[in-house]
Amino acid sequence: MAEYERVLCIKNELFVYRIPARTTNRGYRASEWTLDKPDWTGRIRVVAKGDALIIKLEDRNSGELFAKCPVDAYPGTAIEQVLDSSRYFVIRIQEDSGRSAFIGIGFSDRGDSFDLLVTMQDHFRGLQRQELQEKEEKQYATTPKLDLSLKEGQTMKLNIATKSLQSKPRPKHTQGSGVGLLPPPPRLQPPAEAPVSATQAAVTPETISTTNSSQANSVNPLLDFDNSFSGTNSAKPSTTDAGWGVDGNDPWGDFTSAT
Fold first, then answer.
1. CATH number of the domain that 101 lies in?
2. In which residue ranges is the amino acid composition biased (Pro residues) (predicted)?
3. Cα–Cα distance between 53 and 69 in angstroms, integer?
């Protein structure tokens, strides 16, 4: 089955430098390069073919391959960041014949170099997760499985506790055993009409007039005083009696003439 290349990252501006050979074990420094005069300018394309990661340096217009750098691990010897800058790297390019050389590359934008680092880290972390998953699957396949099936002649006894399906009577609420609902108020019945007696039914206008007259005489006592003095058989009080007028006609004269 043919494997296809997957493009993981591409940047259209890349500078390539020839670097002096390293004479000590210390890292590379970009300040020792001719940064203002790059030896080649093009684009960089990071591709994945299966598990392999390849950095390709190509012409910006035609896409012709200038050099390629197979990356087997990161961090590793295939690509290394310089000590004095985060925008420059040293990569190891290889030819099909097996020859290799170290060159310097750089970006004008710091974000491009950051994307290159993140792309390589994500690729190799994915390979580690895939390798760990395959290892666990292989270990699971080789582990003997437990046979929990019943053999011929074996039986299984289960003790299942059953509960009665009869419904229990609901407890009744007693007074003072909690907050219950009050009963609804009794319905009010309209008052029954009292039966009309024969005496009330026989009331006539003449009876009402006589009753009103007797009530008036019993209510107004002054009328009785006037009637007592107007009769022929009734004697008027003496003018010398205390509490009466001099003329003997007005019983309230003293009260009206008092100062």
1. 2.30.29.30
2. 182-193
3. 9
State pLDDT tens for residues 114-123. Answer: 999 999 999 9
Nearest to 66 by CA among 74, 57, 77: 57
Structural domain total, the chain: 1
* Amino acid, res. 43: R
In a domain, 216, yes or no: no
Query: Can you give the pLDDT at residue 232?
Result: 47
The answer as to whether 88 is a domain residue is yes
For 192-238, what is each residue's pLDDT tens digit? 665 555 555 555 555 555 555 555 454 454 444 444 444 444 444 54
Which candidate, 1, 43, 10, 8, places its Cα nearest to that of 127? 8
Confidence category of residue 245, pLDDT binned at 50, 70, 90: very low
Query: Does residue 226 fall inside a structural domain?
Result: no
Confidence at residue 200, expressed as pLDDT on a 0 to 100 scale: 54
Q: Which two tokens stand for residue 151?
A: 């053999």
Question: Domain residues for 42?
Answer: 5-139
DSSP collapsed to 3 states, 139-171: HHHHCCCCCCCCCCCCCCCCCCCCCCCCCCCCC
168-186, pLDDT tens digit by residue? 666 665 555 555 666 777 7
Backbone CA torsion sign across 229, 230, 235, 237: positive
Instruction: Evaluate whether residue 186 is within a structural domain.
Output: no
Count of H helices and E strands in the chain? 5, 7
Banded pLDDT at 240 (limits 50, 70, 90): very low
Record the tokens describing residue 232, joined without a space: 């022929």
Contact present, 14 and 115 (Cβ < 8 Å): no
